[in-house]
Amino acid sequence: MKIAITSTGKTLDSQVDQRFGRAAYFIVVETETMGFSVLENESVAAAGGAGITSAKAVIDAGAEAVLTGNCGPNAQRTLSAAAVKLYTGATGTIEEAIELFKNGKLTEATSPNVDAHFGIDK
Amino acid sequence: MKEVKEVVVISGKGGTGKTSIVASFAALANSAVLADCDVDAADLHLLLKPDIKQTHDFTGGKLASIITKKCIGCGRCEEVCNFGAAVFNGPANDVAERTYTIDPIACEGCSVCFHFCPVDAIEFNDAVNGQWFVSDTRFGPMVHARLRPGEENSGKLVSLIRKQAKKIANELNKDLMIVDGSPGIGCPVIASISGADLVLAVTEPTVSGQHDLDRVVELTKHFQIPTLVCINKYDINLEIAKEIEQEAQQRDLKLAGKVAYDIAVTKALLEAKSVVEYSNNGIKDQIISLWETILDILNPK
Amino acid sequence: MSYNFVIAIASGKGGTGKTTIATNLAYVASDLGQKVQYLDCDVEEPNGHIFLKPQITGSQEITVDVPQVDPEKCTACGKCGEICQYSAIICIKEHVLTFEQLCHSCGGCFRICPADAIDAKPLKIGDIEFGKTGDINFVSGRLQIGNVRTPALIKEVKKHIKQDHLTIIDVPPGTSCPVVEAVKGVDFVLLVTEPTPFGLNDLRLAVELANEMNLPFDVVINRYGIGNEEVEKYCKAENIDIVMKLPDDRRIAEAYSSGKMIIEQLPEYKNYFLNLLKEIESRI
Fold it and tell me: Domain containing C264 — which CATH number?
């Protein structure tokens, strides 16, 4: 399945970005093959609504699930509308986060775990 | 990589002395990154005299503009604009005696006119709303900006300044960022404080100061950011200063310090100096004590 | 004596004395028999009530329109999401989501929806209070904390400008959107500054704005004597009239700090405001 992980860098060795809306990149991985593509996050400099536009970007990329550190209320609502599953609390490298996900070690988040604007200057 | 701690100085009411105090903090810290987030009326540079190394254009949003030669003067843009930005005051062209123009100050970049113009006579492009700068100062690197008068202060430029300052702090391995915030409780203030480690609300012992402090600490509470209070020029009204102290206590807000009124602040400003550089007596000790309280809270032992 | 005239008291820098000037001016004008209105447009931090101490006679909740989508009529065409510049309304698969706090009330989604599926829903942004201080009509906006629609609330406050009155508008500090909304369409602007580098820096920005908006203005220097002469030099070089110089008097600061009107507490300053009123009247 296709999943999107927030990332500070462009490779599977990069650290998971703890923010969703203003994450540096989204790495979209096909978990069967581990083939992946890198999406630069256009929403980083957005005035407002970064969580929403980031969510739209990963939805349009065909992700069925998102792995991230933290996710605010607007993004969570948007992902939920597209039935994209959200997993927060992911840490380590992208590769490590995917392993945790595949082994069922990450719990699905059904509500936002941070307030709006969490990632605004981190 | 050291974690960069961020202290943001705000006030609610304008004119309580945020910028003067931030300049003194910059002098005392001597190895912090400085960010002037009062982009609407930036003043910190007058005290820190930055040597500008980089200048960047800032695009806050978009702006509509009418291609005069295509306009047929039908007025559809005026009909659909909720902000009164489409005005029937443009020159004649080949097909119309009068055309429309878009007032760039009134335009909010919503794109509605662009979508509804029947003859595609409207362009919708990125607007350059101001500039931001990266500079060196005698106390460390500084990021500040100048928003063009009349522009929307959505907080986007504020967020950009904080992000750049944080980036510089990380690159230079500095562990502290000091932010000069703006008055009020709106977008720019919200953008200054979100995610900060500590907020210092500077107030003055006046009824207006009390009133505005109430509103601004409600905002910091809403965003769950630890907040300290400082009473500047406290000896102008000792009674109200006392009331503010008591109110702070009742709301579980720590009073980080009190600074007396001192003409040295203005005299120092005239020489482009922070007050702690200018004089050795007077309020210097009070400011040092205030700064030390802040450091203790930012870096508990 | 009654005339139609709207004057805005503004400044680039915060804390220069806008509210002091506005409230005391309202008082002297009313005292002379002029019909006066005071509008507090510093809706984020309104302070006029502290000095005028109005008897409040009423209040009004102020709302703006945000979109509400009727799911029965919606065809999920996605046009609303495409036109919105603020991510306040988006289309995800077959769902339309609205994010009210991001809405600028531009009306785009309402207008573009081909299925007429979007209605206007009111969202509260703050309140307006009405009152009277003697014969002065008092109107003040107060933004709800956490809300960001400052210009929209200011626009609503200004709808209460009355004919046959001298209307004095207390403007927020700065030069951005809220200030633009507050000074738009007024007859005259008084720019209040202080004779310091901060005062001069921010005065230049305010002058730039006033010129861009084609608004006539004069300057008031408050706390005259504390700094240097650069503001005066600048005004002279730019042919800007300085219509009042209020001295730096600690007693003024103390009166202000207790919420007292200067002209009541220190009657010797009444002449300053009477002269200011004369200067303003000469511009009508």
Answer: 3.40.50.300
CB atoms within 10 A of CB B270: 15
Residue that has been written with the tokens 């974690």 in this structure: B3
Containing C233, the helix (H) or strand (E) segment is helix C230-237
Domain residues for the domain of A15 are 2-102
- With beta carbons under 8 A apart, name residues in chain A contacting B194: 117-118, 120-121
* Mean pLDDT, residues C12-34: 95
Domain match, B12 and B111 both = no
Beta-carbon separation of B6 and A119 below 8 A: no
Q: Which of B153, B206, B266 sits opposite C176 (nearest CB)?
A: B153
Closest Cα to residue B259, out of B292, B288, B285, B233? B233
B33 and B86 inside one domain? no
Q: Count of alpha carbons within 13 Å of B295, Cβ hemisphere only? A: 14
Q: What are the distances in angstroms from CA B184 to CA B37, C143, C192?
A: 13, 10, 18
Residues B185, B87 share a domain: no
Are C47 and B147 a contacting pair at CB < 8 A?
Answer: no
Same domain? C249 vs C275: yes
- d(CA C256, CA B16) in angstroms, rounded, equals 13
Are the C-beta atoms of B121 and B67 separated by less than 8 Å?
yes
Residue with tokens 């000091």: B178
Q: Are residues C219 and C251 in the same domain?
A: yes
| Distance between CA atoms of residues B97 and B128, nearest Å | 31
Domain boundary among B72, B107, B126: B126
> Does the beta-carbon distance from B15 to C104 stay under 8 Å?
no
What residues make up the domain containing B116? 62-126
State the pLDDT at residue A122.
52
Binding-face residues of A in 36-55 toward B, CB within 8 A: 45-48
Structure tokens, C160: 């209460």
Please report how many Cα atoms fall inside a 13 Å half-sphere around the Cα of residue C9, on the Cβ side.
34
- Domain check: are C187 and C236 in the same one? yes
Q: Is residue A122 part of a domain?
A: no
**Which residues lie closer than 8 Å to A19 by C-beta, 6 or more apart?**
A6, A68, A69, A70, A118, A119, A122
Which CA distances in Å does C26 have to A102, B72, C34, C255? 71, 47, 9, 17
ipTM exceeding the 0.90 mark: no
Q: Which amino acid would we find at residue C238?
A: E
Mark whether B83 and B216 lie in a shared domain: no
Both tokens assigned to A4: 């999107």
Which tokens in the block code for residue B281?
Answer: 């007596």
pLDDT tens-digit readout, A10-64: 999 999 988 888 888 999 999 999 999 999 988 876 667 888 999 999 999 999 9
Inter-chain touch A117–B154, beta carbons under 8 Å: no
User: Which positions in chain B touch A46 (Cβ < 8 Å)?
Assistant: 156
B25 three-state secondary structure: helix
Which chain A residues are within 8 Å of B190, Cβ to Cβ?
117
C86·A48 Cβ contact <8 A: yes
pLDDT of residue B202: 97
Residue of C nearest to A53 (CA): C87
Rounded to whole angstroms, the Cα distance separating C282 from C243 reads: 11
Asked if residue C153 and residue C83 are part of one domain, the reply reads no
Contact between chains at B194 and A45 (C-beta distance less than 8 A): no
Say whether B73 sits in a helix, a strand or coil.
Answer: coil
Does one domain contain both C142 and C90? no
CATH number for B236: 3.40.50.300
Cα distance between residue C84 and residue B158, in whole Å:
23
Q: Residue C93, SS3?
A: coil
Q: What's the average model confidence in pLDDT over A85-101?
A: 93
Task: Give the C-alpha separation, A114 to A70, whole Å.
Answer: 6
- Same structural domain, B94 and B147: no
Partners of chain B (3+ Cβ pairs below 8 A): A, C
Give the residue numbers spanning the domain of C225. Answer: 5-62+127-281
